[in-house]
Amino acid sequence: MAILKVARLGHPVLREISRPISRDDLLSDEVQRFIDDLVETMREYNGAGLAAPQVHRPIRVCLIEVDGNARYPEFPQIPLTALVNPEITFLADEVIRVWEGCLSVPDLRGLVPRRSKIRVTGMDRHGEDIDFVAEGVFAAIVQHECDHLDGKLFVDRVEDTSTFSLIQEFQRFRADEPRVVTD
Ligand code: NI
User: Fold this and answer.
1) Is the dihedral of CA 160, 7, 116, 86 positive or negative?
2) Which residue, 29, 64, 82, 154, has fewest beta-carbon neighbours within 10 Å?
3) 183 CA to centre of ligand 1 in angstroms
4) Are the CB atoms for 155 and 108 separated by under 8 Å?
């Protein structure tokens, strides 16, 4: 397996609309190896998720995993979830605000409003249909990763730009604030 290079803010690949991938292509050895590398890369850099365009490959594949994450110690555990050609339907008007970061925007945090409850459909990495409901932080991370597939970054979603904070200052000045804010 290989650790892939992560594109950073300003690289045009992060602004592309990623293309869907067919079940046949997904099941090819080459794409399965790529997904293994994507998992390895997410874990290497302590991402709570990672999307294929972030490693310079604009296909509609993304991952989510939270397992005692050093960058997000406050997040709940989320088992490794691979989403292929995901589609999101909002199930609630309720919004939560989550302090987000991104491996493509190193060291930055910002408070992002996300829908609190969503339905997710698409395929898993083995080409099986998936259809599940996600809530809270899990829903927020799915929305963050799916945004990557449409060329959107969390910095575009921050409503109150005064919340932008570098990670060291975030830990210094906002250590006592809840990481997920419900209205
Ligand atoms: Ni990201």
Assistant:
1) positive
2) 29
3) 24
4) yes
CA of 159 to the centre of ligand 1 (A): 17
Query: Which DSSP string corresponds to 96-121?
Result: EEEEEEETTEEEEEEEEEEESEEEEE
Length of the chain, please? 183
Ligand 1 centroid distance, CA of 28 (Å): 26
Q: What are phi and psi of 172, to 5 degrees?
A: -75, -45
Q: What pLDDT, in 10s, does the model give residues 157-177?
A: 999 999 999 999 999 998 888
- Two tokens at 10? 């300003």
Question: What does the pLDDT look like over 72-92, one tens digit per residue?
Answer: 777 889 999 999 999 999 999
Residue with tokens 């294929």: 52
Tell me, in angstroms, the distance from the centre of ligand 1 to residue 88's CA: 17
Distance 103 CA to ligand 1 centre (A): 6
Tell me how crowded residue 70 is: count the other CB atoms within 10 A of its CB.
Answer: 6
DSSP state at residue 13: G
The reported pLDDT for the residue numbered 67 is 86
Q: What is the pTM of this model?
A: 0.95
For residue 27 the two structure tokens come to: 């099941």
Distance CA 114, CA 93 (A): 10
Greatest distance between any 2 Cα atoms in the chain: 49
Give pLDDT, residue 177. 80
| Catalytic positions, written as ranges | 145
